[in-house]
Specification:
Length: 618
Amino acid sequence: MTRPLNEQLRTLPASPGVYLFHGEDGEVLYVGKAKSLRSRVRSYFRHSGDGRPGIARLAGRVAEIETIVTRNEVEALHLEQTLVKHHRPPFNVRLRDDKSFPYVAVTIEDDFPRVMFTRERHRPGVLYFGPYANAKKVRGTLDVLNRAFRFRPCEGPKPGRRSGIPCLDYHIDRCLAPCVGLISREDYGALIDGVIEFLSGHTEPIQEQLERSMRDAADEQRFEEAARYRNHLVAVRHLLERQSADRPSEGNVDVLGLAVEDERAAVQVFPLRSGLMVDRYAFHLEGVEDADESTLIEAFCLEYYPGAPAAIPPLIVVPPAATGLEAVAEYLSELRGARVELRAPARGEKRRLQELATENARLALVNETRSREAGRLRRIEALEELREALNLESLPIRIECFDVSNLQEASPVASMVVFRDGVPYKAHYRKFSLRSLVGQSDVAGMKEAIGRRFSRLGEASEGEFDESFSALPNLVVVDGGKGQLSAALEALGEAPETERIAAVSLAKREEEVFVPWSSKPVRLDRHSPGLQLLQRLRDEAHRFAVGYHRQRRSNESFASLFDELRGVGPARRRAILNHFGSPERFLAASVDELIAVPSLPEKTGRQIYAQLHKTGGA
């Protein structure tokens, strides 16, 4: 703390802006905005508090107050959103796992834009639609849209592949082959405009156009072409079957429903486009303790809408208790480039829809409570079953599972995944690049990985301390049979403080569990919670190991490709990677793009392009 807290409170400005509460270690605990920083921040530290029970807990942890003055409240809102995204403060309301929500992205700045599934939303020159709550539904939508519009499914900023021959998608009528000039840039752009119009909710023009094209082709006896248009029309109409309401007078509206229970909150979004309720999205909020409905709706809007400004409707219907959202409306209006209104209707169809959305949000909370309780009971049952079946001293609260992955003798790696209370604890996952492995031996690789993991139990120095390695598991699970179990036991025997750690192995074929105290495997019922927990551990360790192995092989292959390129030394390699940002974009680069790399001569750029084509490097 740079100054006493009382002194910091006395010197607060009365201007609008953003305030950050820091803890004793400097971590950001909370980020907020205010019309007057002085009055708003001081309210947290009054003896009476500001009426919210959780504020006393927050105020007791604040060691330093940082303020940033802005010109107005809307500007403060922009800054607050940026800081919350960056710091992820524990006391701020936030969308649960919002980084992983799926979007539909249209790369509008490409000559031949792509329409693709994505989970990121910050690339310039990309138009985003979403976020959506169901990734499977998004992929299904894209599949139907591809059948109807036949946009290119290939990756990269430019269509096609280096062979110059149309791919299979063209031959199965899933692409119009812009890579070989079978559709002009203008015609392809019109096709993408249709996709954007469809994703924006304007579906009638697309249906009318397809039906008109089908009839024209049939009248001119081009029956195969008419059949294709018919199939595309059927696909589009099938996609629209999920729409559950038709209210032409309502226009483009998002209806928000909110339900709050203790530390949890659920939001339901009913998007109406041209009067059609095109879907229903369900989201959950974290960090909602003691927050009122206005705060929750504001936090939701600030996380949900900025990712796809083109999808913001002119009207957002909010619950009646959500008030004081004028700054949020101004902020969303700036993002959309047109006026956005947040309103709680008092009567009529919009009020009925808002009540329906609220009821759905309440049911979502009830269902999640039931699901979480059922999952908790099943995890307890699984842990109890493992303790009994494996003769463990205590309940296996922390379980670590190891797996080895290699291809022949290339890039051997191992993984360690951690389950705590029966659920993945991903912050404690670790991966190992195996150093001493000679030949293709999973047993030797397992011994090295477990030995290296438990050799770090006693480390306590600041530079080498690892929270995951310092924790003792109740149970170690290895993927394999008796050989892998023996290697694990041998490695455990060489490490200190591991006498009471139990170890078992799980063999894939028969799902047998081998234990040290018996020559025969323990057989658990295939449907038992205990075996299913072990299988989840084993599968997760395998997934983590295979992912790391592929990453290692990709990096090594890319490094070896650079080694084979004449005229590319370490300095030019760094320049190329800094310019393109990823190996994939470098390999897909054109001659002009290679020539544009800073500090790379034109002649060298052309040589690199020729070498990549000759060797088939892309």
